[in-house]
Amino acid sequence: MIFPQRILRPQTAFSVAGSRRKHPRIENRNHLSFIRRLPCVVCSTRVRIEAAHIRMGNPLYGKSAAGMQEKPSDTFTVPLCAPHHDEQHAMNEAQFWMALAIDPLRLALALFDSTGDEDRAEQIIRSHRGN
Hints:
The protein is mainly alpha-helical.
């Protein structure tokens, strides 16, 4: 009797671990420094500005949601004062931005595109605030 060769199953077969492809995080210290020089997108203060990373995702902008223990790319950051940054983290992020009628992903991409040009960035922030 002839037995067929044994077929070995790859270790990744039926594995959930290999199915979620992570996008590498883009780090850009110059952009983060630029963001911290801008006014808060909520209240316009220039005191204690932080580069707030947007965690929520939207395929329209090519942004997947950041998982637990996963920091989003620096591309998706907006300037928030410390109190508003704390508020952003204390509640549902989508609800935070919806209450302000601001699309944070669109804003973040526009600010990234204007890195280094503070006048242009401030115009972008004002237009997103409706001021």
